[in-house]
Amino acid sequence: MHPRMTTAFALLVFARVSLASAPEPGERVSSPDGRVSITFLLENGAPRYAVAFSGLGIIRPSPLGFVLKDAPPMTSGFEVSELKRETGDETWRPVWGISSKVRNRYNQLTVRLRETNAPARELVLVFRACNDGAAFRYVLPAQSNLSDVAILSEETAFRLAENCTAWWHPVNYDGDEDTYRTTPLDRMPAVNTPVTMKTPGGVHLSIHEAALVDYASMTLAPVDGDMHSFRCELVPWPDGVKVKASTPMKTPWRTIQLADRAAGLLESHLIENLNEPCKIADTSWIEPMKYMGIWWGMHIGKETWAAGSNHGATTENAKQYIDFAASNGIRGVLIEGWNTGWESWFKGASFSFTESYPDFDLPAVAQYAREKNVALIGHHETGGNIPAYEEQMDEAFALYRRLGVRAVKTGYAGEIIPKGQHHHGQWMVNHYQRVTERAAAYHIALDVHEPVKPTGLCRTWPNLMTGEGVRGTEYEAWSDGNPPEHTTIIPFTRGLAGPIDYTPGIFAVTFPKYREGRRVHTTVAKQLALYVVIYSPLQMAADLPENYEGRPEFQFIRDVPVTWDETRALDAAIGDFAAVARRRGNDWFIGAITDESARKLNLPLSFLDPDQTYEATLYTDGKDADWEKNPTPVEITTKTVRAGESLNLSLASSGGAAIRLRPVRAEASPAPGDATGE
Fold first, then answer.
1. Rounded to an integer, what distance in angstroms lies between the CA atom of residue 273 and that of residue 456?
2. SS3 state of residue 363
3. Which is nearest to 675 in space by CA: 367, 406, 317, 439?
């Protein structure tokens, strides 16, 4: 068993056999706390499921099954041949994450179905009920009458019981870089997941998937004539087939995270718990860190990726970034645009991943970084040209390993080559997985941009550390930007899927010298708060080094960790505000953000050690701060607080607050910001 895997595990199995159909009103499995339940039904031979939370129906009986190419559909004509019940309880330790220990406790029902008539194929349904949600998956066992499988449609549907409020972005088979809309469910079109909802009674839920391996990504499309109902729509191959496989096979888990308040969703571990344990025996080389890099200058137009008079990735510029990082406790430096081929971006993408531009000496820069105890982060922008990247991938990873580079940011900005494949289709899902596994073989961690959405695979492959898959800070540089409510939504949508490389930390929120009329839609204090609210084990200080000089609020970025022992979601209203507390060692950090509305928050400190007094350092919006008119003032104050007290915060329009709480007399603990305690 993997050394990080488990401190406790219990498994009980109960099985019984039926050769008819599931008895009415169905077979139910409930979570250990009894609040979440999934019911399996067989209606005239057609499998269905339903979900309830605290006795309230959330999902009405909804279809299950497959439509196959050149074979009869597997949607009806079934009988139950076996039922099996299991109970699991384990505690495992992530390599990095929002908690240093994760409990995975569940009750499970496995239903084996068999067609009553020829070809008498078998289909297995696995239902799992956890305290933070429900999940189910399909298994097609090895069987002589079903070997090769071409899935035209997965018939899974989600028939919501009520007209919820929904937070979503439109369906896109090639990305998730869009703003989120807030509408009633009956006005929601086809969407990507995660999609998050709030029932009229205040229950919050989010529909997504877990353990996406060798399968197409799931989107949701409205069901005509069935109010508040959505069906699974898988991203297709060029020939229209959705999934090509052979038995035995299993699908990703379909997940419904559930909480009685918005903040409760942020504490869920459902997605990662549904993935397999870590497959990397020695994870000591995987290092969470803060980083900066040659990146923002290109987005605002100061520098270029391609070689030329304003080339960003020069040896001289790289050393300046390394010097700044070393002087300020920033562990990593990313360098984009160092390799030849950027002139071909969006024109066939003929990149080399081993050849440097003449003005960049990769071995010399890597050596300089080692001497300064700075971790160099490599960059592989593929432009979507997958055959070219896979041909060079091993050589490129081997080069980085020789030079001591332990992390690489990959990119897939552009249409996928070969033509007709999609970023979120099965073919690309398999490519991303190959890259993850090959990177692990070379002891390289990944930050994936233009990825397939995360589905918790970071538990199995913790070198898959973070990714984009969201409309990040770069959009503030060259588009209309991200509206103030954006970052109060994404923790509850995209953030539920996995870490986000959002790239916060912009202090010069306007940059008229380079792009007149473009700006970041926050105050500087909100930029600080994002380091706590939006989680990533690789967290960027994204601004130019000169914009941090002489700014005392930069101390918060120096101090804030990137992996945590405990997370408490304090309060939130999706699209309005969010407040999150996270602990590393004995220190707590709080981030609070708001949308375009200035607001006051009262945050009880009941999570603190009641026997301890804490020194709180607060970085808050300064006097008259406003994201449009006066975004830069940050007020820094200190006070002592205890567990029975509250913090009263005043947040400016699109503002925030970032707080560090240190015990006044604490036992020695890992220091936030050092190589092991980030």
1. 8
2. helix
3. 406
For residue 594 the two structure tokens come to 């708001």
Cα–Cα distance measured from residue 222 to residue 224, given in angstroms and rounded to the nearest whole number: 6
**Is the Cβ–Cβ distance between 620 and 632 less than 8 Å?**
no
- pLDDT score at 32: 98
Number of Cβ within a 10 Å radius of residue 310? 12
Q: How far apart are CA 75 and CA 152, in angstroms?
A: 13
Closest of 452, 446, 450 to residue 429, by C-alpha: 452
Q: What is the DSSP string of 8-52?
A: EEEEEEEEE--SS-PPTT-EEEE-TTSSEEEEEEEETTEEEEEEE
User: Between helices 426-441 and 386-403, what is the axis angle to 10°?
Assistant: 20
287 is an active site residue? no
**Which one is predicted more confidently, 678 or 294?**
294
Measured distance CA(325)–CA(374) in Å, rounded:
7
* pLDDT more than 90, % of the chain: 94
Burial class (CB in 10 A: 0-12, 13-18, 19+), 55: exposed
pLDDT tens-digit readout, 138-168: 999 999 999 999 999 999 999 999 999 999 9
For the chain, what are the domain ranges? 8-273, 289-469
Burial class (CB in 10 A: 0-12, 13-18, 19+), 198: buried
- For 487-613, strand residue ranges (E) read 538-540, 566-573, 577-584, 587-594, 599-604
CATH architecture of 289-469: Alpha-Beta Barrel (3.20)
Token pair recorded at residue 617: 């350092």
Q: What is the pLDDT of residues 207-252, one digit of tens each?
A: 999 999 999 999 999 999 999 999 999 999 999 999 999 999 999 9
**Residues linked to residue 112 through DSSP beta bridges, in sequence order:** 82, 124
Distances (CA, A) of 651 to 473, 524, 577, 591: 21, 12, 10, 11
Name the band, by pLDDT with cuts 50, 70 and 90, for residue 665. Answer: confident
- How far apart, in Å, are the Cα atoms of 629 and each of 24, 234, 494, 506? 63, 45, 30, 17
Q: Which of 155, 450, 474, 553 is catalytic?
A: 474
Environment class of residue 74 by beta-carbon count within 10 Å: exposed (0-12), middle (13-18) or buried (19+)? buried
Three-class HEC string of 295-350: CHHHHCCCCECCCCCCECCCHHHHHHHHHHHHHCCCCEEEECCCECCHHHCCCCCC
What pLDDT sits at residue 595?
Answer: 98
Encoded tokens for 402: 């020789």
Please work out, in degrees rounded to the nearest 5, the angle formed at the alpha carbon of residue 472 by the alpha carbons of 467 and 474. Answer: 115
Crossing angle, helix 315-327 and helix 362-371, to 10 degrees?
A: 10
What is the residue type of 190?
A
Between CA 181 and CA 167 the distance in angstroms is 6
Query: How many alpha carbons lie under 13 Å from residue 425 in its C-beta half-sphere?
Result: 22
pLDDT digit string, tens, across residues 109-146: 999 999 999 999 999 999 999 999 999 999 999 999 99
Tell me which amino acid residue 229 is: S
Q: Are 211 and 218 in contact (CB under 8 A)?
A: no
Q: Are 518 and 477 in contact (CB under 8 A)?
A: yes
pTM given for the model:
0.95
**Domain 8-273, CATH among 2.70.98.10, 3.30.870.10, 3.60.21.10, 1.10.1740.10:** 2.70.98.10
Alpha carbon distance 57, 587 (integer Å)? 41
